[in-house]
Amino acid sequence: SLFSFRFLAYNPIFARSHLNFIGSLSDSLIEAGHEVEMMNLRDAWHGQCNFTLYHQEIIEELIREKYDGAFSEPICMCGFALFNHIGITNYAVTLSIASSEGSFETTGAPSFPSYVPGIRIYLGEKMNFFERIHNSFNYFVLGLFVPGIRNPFDAMFKQRFGLEFPNIDNIINNSSFFFVNSEPLIDFPKITTHKLIDIGGIGVSSGHQKVNETWSEILNRREKNVLISFGTVAKSYLMPDQYKKSIIETARNNPDVTFIWKYEKPEHRISQGIDNLVEATWIPQNDMLCE
């Protein structure tokens, strides 16, 4: 016999990577035989949340659906308040970015900035005394920043549902699982718990198209190719100069390799005079990696 469950996915359209992550998680549940209904909201913040919470028809419809579980990202707290109000007791927190310090306090797994570097700074796992202070300071600042995001939501929820409505921290802390877009084999070692589930790479597409003639010619120039890309959010042209020089020198020292670099400012002429360094403002990354 087949047992399937019904899930509610609260998916604020915040950025492409976040949208893709929630969508991929939903697809995995559907492929396993479950049913997923998704709420797509264009404004991840207070205006849309306030409208949703006061839309009684939507609330009543969601209550009638009797979902078995739900999941959302903590970039918008509205989904978790909604889960609590309509009676969903089994829900998960998802995080579409790399492991973030401080987020894991929800799971009971402590953060140790003395030896685990944060994702917001450039430090590695071997830090000197001053670098550890720097890392700890960033962790402290993050702890001050997060309440500034959550407190307005708490005020909104209590105004809508009453002063007895639980704080958003309590709702998130009672989640069943915490799914993170992290690959433990390449992530920094850290203390974890069984509540944390690593599903890094779930949003990577398995399908691809053949690259066009221009890219095919570039890939066939040499036997070896190296692709340098940091996605759509991290811009190569904003890298420190020493990092750029390191990439340029690496290309110069390896003339038998074609280096393809996603660089957003062609007017910088970063590849000038280097035959094996190709720069482009956009790269068909998935298609190229599958070529």
TrEMBL record:
Catalytic function, reaction form: glucuronate acceptor + UDP-alpha-D-glucuronate = acceptor beta-D-glucuronoside + UDP + H(+)
Sample GO molecular function, one term: glucuronosyltransferase activity
Top EC class, one word: transferase
E.C. no: 2.4.1.17
Entry keyword set: Glycosyltransferase, Signal, Transferase
InterPro entries registered for this protein in UniProt: UDP-glycosyltransferase, UDP_glucos_trans
Protein name: glucuronosyltransferase
Family: Belongs to the UDP-glycosyltransferase family.
Protein's UniProt keywords contain Acyltransferase: no
SUPFAM superfamilies: UDP-Glycosyltransferase/glycogen phosphorylase
PANTHER family according to UniProt: EG:EG0003.4 PROTEIN-RELATED (PTHR48043), UDP-GLUCURONOSYLTRANSFERASE (PTHR48043:SF23)
Pfam families xref list: UDPGT
